[in-house]
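Exercise 7. Given the components listed, write out the predicted structure of the assembled complex. Treat all entries as one system.
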Amino acid sequence: MDNLRHINNSFNDDKVIDACSIFGAMNTSGKRFPGTGVIKAIANMHDRGNGLGGGFAVYGLYPDYKELYAFHIMYLSSEGRKETESYLGENFDIVHMEEVPNRKTAKITNPPVIMRYFLDVCKHQPDIALQDDYVLQAIMHINTTRKGSFVFSGGKDMAVFKGVGYPEEIAEFFCLEQYEGYIWTSHGRFPTNTQAWWGGAHPFSVLDWTVVHNGEISSYGINKRYLEGYGYHCTMQTDTEVIAYAVDLLMRKHKLPIEVMAKVLAPPFWNDIERMPDKERKLALALRQVYGSIMLNGPFAILVAHHGELIGLTDRIRLRPLSVGEKDNMVYFSSEESAIRLISPKLDKSWTPMGGEPVIVRLKQESRQLPDTREEAVTSGR
Amino acid sequence: MKTLLTSKFAVIRDPEKCIQCQVCVNQCSFNANYFDAEENEVKSRNENCVDCQRCVVFCPTMAITITNTPLEYRYHRNWTASVIDDINKQAETGGVLLTGMGTDKDYPVYWDHLLLNASQVTNPSIDPLREPMELVTYLGSKPQKLEIDERTLELRTKMPPQVKLNVPVMFSAMSYGAVSLNVQKSLAKAATEIGTMWNTGEGGLHSSLKKYGSNTIVQVASGRFGVHSEYLNSGRMVEIKIGQGAKPGIGGHLPGEKVSSEVSLTRMIPEGSDAISPAPHHDIYSIEDLLQLIHALKEATNYTKPISVKIAAVHNAAAIASGIVRGGADMVVIDGFRGATGAAPKIIRDNVGIPIELALASVDSRLREEGIRNKASIVISGGIRNSGDVIKAIALGADAVYIGTSALIALGCHVCQQCHTGKCAWGICTSDLKLTKRINPDVGSQRLINLLRGWSLEIKDILGGLGVNSIESLRGNRLHLRGVGLSDSELEILGVRPAGR
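Answer.
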């Protein structure tokens, strides 16, 4: 991972500093839709990036391989590829593998080799409850010890496509107009202190969790130290990586509900906590007392996605923009409302969430397969 | 025996301004100013002057100046004035040299080698005048994680007792007897008004201060003076004092002359008897004994109060702190070697212990490495001078700090280092009723409130500049610190990068 750090943060600054555009769309009935609209929308915010990183996360992508872990891996060297493929062969059943389809374009020069693998772990880790950890360890192992190999994503029925270029160029390169999914998130990047490299683009992922992020986390130093206490090694020195690990820790390991997690990342002010009803206050107080070190401070707007849920969140005083729009079964998030209006001019509802107010979009009851029956509301947080 | 010591200070009185009113005579508790009735003139005995500047401040015509005496020993790198004087004092008395305050020796102050960050362009600084800026801090053990009912979103985890501070600055332990009741009243009143804590020290809790209980930390030290069930339960937190930064490894001694009837009642010892705190707790000879005392105190307070353990910053403070946390303490206090004292052997004050900055950095790092940092809050003390020191301490990993000397300076202390004499002209470190009435608790508490208000405004400014709006985002966030003029190993221990990198 030293190598990674070098690529990602060549000047060895405290962390990578960047600003960005973000866009997300979800169909709450679970209907898959092509990426054309999302690509058009993120391209409309061209000026918010500087061509040093663009990417997309797509959910509901591989219906034919729904039950398999889909690894998208970038290779910077052929030896790395050989090593990694033999590692994958030893630790998984490779059901299918192929190069991620791409086309030669004028703007994307010298792209790395990017492969995808559909992996079955059942024989290697029969206990379903432990499969995620097994896969996560394998990803960490590849990223830290296999030189020149980098796992872009490794969740089921989803993938991350990213690289150096403007997001619309990345979309063209990966032929994203040909894919369909029920959640899309995308990102255009404006890094100020990093050499461009493909792994440094957003989204960042842990299993099927992905994060796109616009902002700079001023609490990075303590967030990182806190996560290190739980065995997460923030070797890439980007604050987005910290967010991805925080989400993994809070939701997968500590099993906090998503709205509670949002209250950890962007907690209410003490003054507001004092005025809450008793039950709510008790929880909010304890969350801040226990998880203060993982609160994200400084300007940010993030979109966090996993199967069945898409959440938009800004910092507590909303130092980075985020707009929300709803039309029928579609919910959109964007750094700029204009990008939403471009692809869906007649919205049923559009608004700007308050700072620190999570907007959670879930699959509608009938289409969801999650055990969650907490509430019917599709969009909460208003 | 004729003393070979010469005066250190000269009292200079401007004859043009002096109106012979004798205020300086009345104010001086060291007998340095006197009225010569024969000559009908106010005069001074320079050899008695300690440069406390009480007379300077109270002279109605501002006629008095105090300077170092122009008399100097011949320069010698090794045989400095203080070395020569100390040898003479011991040659004349044959005793241990006592002193007060924290060490005045020229050891490095690491705070002055640490610099803070600020936001420019890529993230906005936050204006504390227009945006909320949060300093609230909760002391006490935190669970590793919370369990929440997924359906009702109710909290299932039972939280251990927490103590809320509006400002992460508390008043450190100064016992009744060492300081006067009026000083404690000022501290207690100010702590209550601001929403922070004051600490009884090892001297019990005077009955008139019980009303400030919810802002009081009651101390249990090796002499167990004033400790009883009601005392333990009258505070918000209980602190076991193992050591003190100014005198690690030794106990304390309150001379019988200071044990007045009120002090005797509060300490629960006979009037006029010496109060001797032994060097160790005689029921704590090992870490498992400490564990027992921690749990005994938890039992005695029915698990409603966090238990703190205070140690002096010594070489292996990190390992000791780890043991203390594993022993069940909810808070660890580390008192650095620049910490002050009411009385301590000078040789110990000036030569034992380590700087608090290094101790804090290594304790915080160690507890994190061991995965137990959440189990206890870290509080430091010993020479915290201003809000810059406070914020650097928090960035290194402290939850809060204690201030002692800074608080006393706010009450009038001029750091003349005569605390051990019991003659404090400012009425702070004395039990002489003529002197203690010089502190008015109403005025004193207002000065303390003003001080902490000023500091908290400054802390908010710095936080806003760093681009965060809550103190917990700075706690342990050493990336916001850079070192200047430090060696590689010092930087490594502090866990900070050199400036420019």
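Discussion: The CA atoms of residues 427 and 436 of chain B lie 4 Å apart. The mean pLDDT of chain B is 96.
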